[in-house]
């Protein structure tokens, strides 16, 4: 009986991929270790090797097919003596999309986790009315922002681990080496403390470095240079020295990478005077705010999210789209409760708001976008209207961004409150590896809905 | 006297003068500390003067310096006004950092002095970054990155060595080996006590230099500068030197004997030693040196007066210079 060869997961967050090329055809004999196909994930193109010996029976997914789900059958492997065309053990439920024009449709369906929930989002007042919008992934928006700024200013350069030849560990810097050469797109050794300090020195000398951390988890090795050298030197020099540098990379939990690789550092950096901290969710914000961060004369911490990289959102088609740092945005107006979120939880908040609307609760959702300086004016104005606030973040609950927002609301809008300011956060534990525990550790749409019902007394 | 010899004698006198200025400045700073006019940590450079003065004698306009918290001497040698340095020590509005940095955190963008860094070793990658910027811009400036025998055991120093050699950055790593990392002697803290060898596994050449001999330092500096300007990458200069005072003003110095200090002062003092040489060479006579000493003393006294009479920063300064 033939066995199925399944689409492999080639990264912790991969849920689907493109079968770019078959290196075997029906009838070929393969043994373990032979390369069967090339598969493109959102991060890289990888070779897929055979595990078992046998003869390829049937190719079930044509090369060039995009959006092939992990674990779906892509070919059959015949046992000794079997002939091609024998029925596979299990019927392929396929995406089995044909190559060519139709394969895009498959990709667009997406998966629940990697794709943004389909919800209404209010237009950004910063974008002129009538501007053409182009669907763009957060990943491409970040790359476009860097490329545009590097074209505009020769002093801007990118450095980090695997940013050049590898094209970015998460493909954010794809194509930049080819356009800007290795003078301006620089692969560093694995040496966070060293290259962070080197970047700070280059910024002191007037260059405008973009320092990529493969993930923010690794930046803890460089904490002294980020805080003591980058953030404090302007002050310590009586305003003589400037440190125009951007530190960027994915922050927060990815998927199944456990405690040392899953942490949201927002509150750490947002507590430091001298630092600006940006944490966008939408692609347009990622682009407009990264361009602003690169132009900013201060050190800027730019917190991205790996799960969000592949999500597509409309981005205004403008020659030079720069957003102001320090402004939150009401992404869904409402009157019953204020939900404050940033980064990946903005998507969850919008999803919760849709469900709450079905139950007659009209939630206003604020995307903070910048965590320092914190746009409390927008939050307070909203709370004065809705009289209730729930914050949502993936970070730990103690001394979190939500803690700060809630305390400021209690101080500055106390008389407007009809319920205690409430936080929805990650659990107060290191991130567990087991799938069920990891799910339990992260805040969910349901957690948020429950909290909103509690403050609106609908629970 | 022929022109060349005259200019040579002028530059010799300048070396002597600059060392003396640092010595007298530091003595006065120590006094002001004792009077409670300087607060916090204060690390004096007394004994090590030949290192920075010799290297500045080898540097040219546009070259940069960066060091740790024992930084007063580096600033004076770079021509920064002693008044603004002393006023920073006393935390006054006229200080180099307007009173907000203090002894350990001073900078002069104008004079290419990049600090004044309080965390042991942190200045090393930053100095490497200054050199990176010089190379990026195609400038031929060289960065003098100073650190001590203590900092030489920090990991980020080796991260910097690796990148500097990999990318052939024009940086001179000056290891000021004054033999004690705070209270721990080199022998008690370092597996390899020859610091000029610390770059070997990165293919960075190193030289051991008598850091108490200003002319030896200058000559080594010139060689290192030429190496860097020729695009050959980084180089290490280990300066064998000695600090007479404690690590900071609050150091009882129980880790070494008084005799040890006295012996260095009497036999190897960089200023006395060089003064005698200048007299032997006929560049100066005793009276010239006395006159120079009086002039330097007056300059330092004026700096101290300026630093104690200047007002403290205005209270509104608390919230300035945080963001551009």
What attributes does this structure have?
heterodimer, A: 459 residues, alpha/beta, five-stranded mixed beta sheet, 22% strand, B: 324 residues, Rossmann fold, six-stranded parallel beta sheet, two-stranded antiparallel sheet, 8 strands, globular
Task: Describe the protein's architecture and organization.
The complex is a heterodimer of chains A (about 450) and B (about 325). Chain A is of the alpha/beta class. Chain A has helices at about 105-110, 140-150, 175-185, 190-205, 225-230, 235, 265-270, 285-295, 345-360, 375-385, 400-410, 435-440, 445-455; strands at about 5, 15-20, 30, 35-40, 45-50, 55-60, 65-70, 75-80, 135, 155-160, 185, 210, 245-250, 275-280, 300-305, 310-315, 330, 335-340, 365, 370, 390, 420-425. Chain A is built from 13 helices and 22 strands. In chain A, β4 (about 35-40) and β5 (about 45-50) form a beta hairpin. Chain A starts with a strand and ends with a helix. The model of chain A is unreliable at about 90-110 (pLDDT under 50). Chain B has a domain at about 40-80 and about 110-285: Rossmann fold (3-Layer(aba) Sandwich), CATH 3.40.50.970. Chain B contains eleven helices and eight strands. The longest helix of chain B has about 30 residues, at about 5-35. Chain B is globular, with a radius of gyration of 19 Å. The interface of A and B includes residues 189, 233, 239, 240 and 276 of A.
């Amino acid at each position: 009986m033939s066995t199925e060869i399944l689409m492999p997961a080639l990264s912790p967050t991969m849920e689907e991929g493109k079968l770019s090329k078959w290196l075997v055809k029906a009838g070929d004999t393969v043994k373990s270790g032979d390369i069967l196909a090339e598969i493109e994930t959102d991060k890289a193109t990888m070779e897929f090797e055979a595990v078992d010996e046998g003869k390829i029976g049937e190719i079930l997914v044509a090369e060039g097919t995009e959006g092939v789900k992990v674990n779906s059958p892509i070919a059959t492997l015949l046992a000794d003596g079997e002939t091609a065309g024998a029925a596979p053990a299990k019927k392929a439920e396929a995406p089995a999309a044909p190559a060519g024009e139709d394969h895009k449709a498959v990709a667009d369906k997406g998966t629940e986790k990697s794709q943004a929930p389909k919800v209404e989002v209010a237009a950004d007042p910063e974008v002129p009315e009538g501007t053409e919008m182009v669907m763009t992934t957060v990943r491409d928006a970040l790359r476009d922002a860097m490329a545009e700024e590097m074209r505009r200013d020769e002093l801007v350069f990118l450095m980090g681990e695997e940013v050049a030849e590898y094209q970015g560990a998460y493909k954010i810097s794809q194509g930049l080496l080819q356009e800007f050469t290795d003078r301006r797109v620089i692969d560093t050794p694995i040496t966070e403390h060293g290259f962070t300090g080197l970047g700070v020195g280059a910024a002191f000398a007037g260059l405008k470095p973009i320092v990529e951390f493969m993930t923010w988890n690794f930046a803890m090795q460089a904490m002294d240079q980020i805080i003591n050298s980058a953030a404090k030197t302007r002050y310590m020099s009586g305003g003589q020295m400037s440190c125009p540098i951007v530190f960027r990379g994915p922050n927060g939990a990815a998927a199944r990478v456990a405690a040392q690789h899953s942490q949201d550092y927002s509150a750490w950096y947002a507590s430091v005077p001298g630092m600006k901290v940006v944490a966008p969710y939408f692609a347009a914000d990622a682009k407009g705010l990264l361009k602003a961060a690169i132009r900013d004369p201060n050190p800027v911490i730019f917190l991205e999210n790996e799960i969000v990289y592949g999500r597509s959102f409309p981005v205004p088609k403008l020659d030079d789209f720069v957003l102001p740092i320090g402004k939150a945005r009401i992404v869904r107006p409402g009157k019953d409760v204020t939900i404050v979120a940033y980064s990946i939880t903005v998507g969850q908040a919008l999803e919760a708001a849709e469900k709450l609307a079905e139950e007659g609760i009209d939630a206003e959702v604020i995307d903070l976008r910048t965590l320092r300086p914190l746009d409390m004016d927008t939050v307070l104005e909203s709370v004065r209207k809705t009289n209730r606030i729930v914050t949502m973040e993936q970070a730990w609950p103690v001394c979190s961004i939500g803690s700060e927002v809630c305390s400021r609301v209690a101080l500055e809008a106390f008389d407007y409150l009809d319920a205690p300011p409430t936080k929805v956060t990650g659990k107060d534990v290191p991130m567990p590896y087991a799938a069920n525990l990891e799910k339990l550790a992260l805040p969910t749409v349901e957690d948020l809905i429950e909290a909103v019902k509690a403050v609106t007394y609908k629970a | 006297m022929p022109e060349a010899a005259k200019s040579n004698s002028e530059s010799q006198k300048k070396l002597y003068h600059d060392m003396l200025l640092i010595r007298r400045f530091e003595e006065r700073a120590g006094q002001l500390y004792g009077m409670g006019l300087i607060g916090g940590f204060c690390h004096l450079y007394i004994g090590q003067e030949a290192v920075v003065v010799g290297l500045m004698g080898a540097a040219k306009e546009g070259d940069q310096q960066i060091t740790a918290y024992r930084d007063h001497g580096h600033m004076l040698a770079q021509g920064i006004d002693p008044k603004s340095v002393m006023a920073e020590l006393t935390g006054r509005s006229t200080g180099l950092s307007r009173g907000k940095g203090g002894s350990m955190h001073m900078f002069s963008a104008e004079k290419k002095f990049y600090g004044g860094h309080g965390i042991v070793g942190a200045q090393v990658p930053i100095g490497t970054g200054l050199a990176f910027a010089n190379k990026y811009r195609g400038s031929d400036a060289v960065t003098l990155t100073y650190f001590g025998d203590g900092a030489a055991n920090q990991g980020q120093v080796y991260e910097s060595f690796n990148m500097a050699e990999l990318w052939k950055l024009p940086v001179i790593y000056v290891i000021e080996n004054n033999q004690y990392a705070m209270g721990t002697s080199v022998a008690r803290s370092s597996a390899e006590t020859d610091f000029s060898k610390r770059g070997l596994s990165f293919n960075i050449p190193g030289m051991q230099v008598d850091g108490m001999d200003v002319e030896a330092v200058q000559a080594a500096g010139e060689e290192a500068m030429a190496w860097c300007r020729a695009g050959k990458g980084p180089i290490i200069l280990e300066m064998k030197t000695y600090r007479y005072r404690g690590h900071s003003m609050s150091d009882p110095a129980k880790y070494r004997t008084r005799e040890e200090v006295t012996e260095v002062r009497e036999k190897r003092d960089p200023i006395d030693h060089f003064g005698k040489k200048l007299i032997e060479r006929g560049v100066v006579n005793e009276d010239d040196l006395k006159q120079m000493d009086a002039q330097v003393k007056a300059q330092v006294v004026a700096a101290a007066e300026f630093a104690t009479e200047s007002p403290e920063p205005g209270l509104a300064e608390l919230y300035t210079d945080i963001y551009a």
